[in-house]
Amino acid sequence: MAADQDKKPAARKTAAKKPAAKKPAAKKPAAKRTQAKKSTPAKGVNVKKATSAKPSAPLKAGATRAASTQSNTASDLKERAIDKARTTANDGKAKAGEAIETFSEMIENSAKTIDENVGEKYGDYARSAADAVSSFAEKVNSKDVDEMVEDARSFVRKRPAVAIGAAAVVGLLVSRLIKSGMDDRS
User: Fold this and answer.
1) Where is the composition biased (Basic residues) (predicted)?
2) Which of 139, 142, 145, 140 is nearest to 82 (CA)?
3) 106 pLDDT exceeds 70?
4) Is residue 25 assigned to a domain?
5) Given a cut of 70, is residue 50 above it in pLDDT?
């Protein structure tokens, strides 16, 4: 038994030396030691350290539903606004088509008066102008608003200088109309 007792203290001494040998190899900077102390798991638990940041807590089911409801509401609102704009544009297109057709009829009716007062040659000019306006009214009435918008875009791409000039003229006319309307009120 004495021999067995001699072997046990030697085994204890070697066991005590092993942790001492690991300490120099496991040196960490001061900042890392504080992090290691904060996230030290309980004994016997194997935990892997993550290199990336942890995601925030998952949303509750109610919060997820609320977020999806808000996005659905926003998309519904957007769709309703687009539908309303399209309906208004279609109504405006129909009114514009009618106004252009009425203008064409006015030119056609005045062609007879022009024949009598100025001559048939000028009356023919008025009739050709009436035909051109009438065909434009038919094009406006036959096309959808989306097609008209695409036609306008392609025209601006092909002839940007003409489009800028037309926009300037329209802006000038609108400003004159507004100005004359304000002068009449004074």
Assistant:
1) 10-36
2) 145
3) yes
4) no
5) no
Per the CB < 8 A criterion, the answer to whether 89 and 140 are in contact is no
Range with lowest mean pLDDT among 1-10, 86-95, 149-158? 1-10
Residue 32 lies inside a defined structural domain of this protein = no
Is the pLDDT reported for residue 119 higher than 70? yes
Q: Are the C-beta atoms of residues 138 and 93 closer than 8 Å to each other?
A: no
Q: Is residue 82 part of a domain?
A: yes
* Distance separating alpha carbons of residues 181 and 164, to the nearest angstrom: 26
Structural domain containing residue 128: 71-149
Beta strands in 65-140 (DSSP E): none
* CA atoms lying within 13 Å on the CB side of residue 129: 14
% helix, strand, coil for the chain, step of 5: 80, 0, 20
Q: Which region, left, alpha or beta, applies to residue 119 given φ > 0 means left and ψ of -120 to 50 means alpha?
A: left
Residue 145 · residue 90 · CB < 8 Å: yes
Give the chain's domain count. 1
Whether residue 44 lies inside any domain: the answer is no
| Angle, vertex CA 93, rays to CA 178 and CA 174, nearest 5 | 15
